[in-house]
Amino acid sequence: MGVDVCWDTAASQPPARLASLRSMDAVVRGAKDEWLKLFAADGVIEDPVGPSMFDEEGKGHHGTEGISAFWDLTIANVERFQFTIRDSHAAGSECANVGTITTYLPGGYRVDTDGVFVYRVNEAGLVTSMRAFWETERAMATARKADE
Questions:
Q1: Which of these, 48, 75, 64, 81, lies nearest to 127 by C-alpha position?
Q2: Are the beta carbons of 9 and 25 closer than 8 angstroms?
Q3: 45 FRET partner, CA 20 to 30 A, in 106, 113, 119, 127?
């Protein structure tokens, strides 16, 4: 499985953008352990932000154990990911990527999730926060056979 992250940028990147690119790359390759190492021990994922089918209370997935459980609940159930980042804005210790995540699901379906994906890193370049702003109903409305 090759890297399917689309983003045409210069070789040198701000730390938060670099962390986001590494995160997407690890997800595409199904490299859970590598992905987990990108996060600070006290990191948090809110994907999507607020209450959802992945986080009923909307409080996020905290720490290595919570982030690992998030992988098992969401990422592990997808056959293939494609990230298309149309724009990226880095400032300070954060980066906001604007794009689409296409997920290929069991049963031959795919879903496109448009959103803004915000990464914050600490001084060591580890992700302390990943917040994904996307709408469940909007994403589910794109569900279709993968060959369409």
A1: 64
A2: no
A3: 106
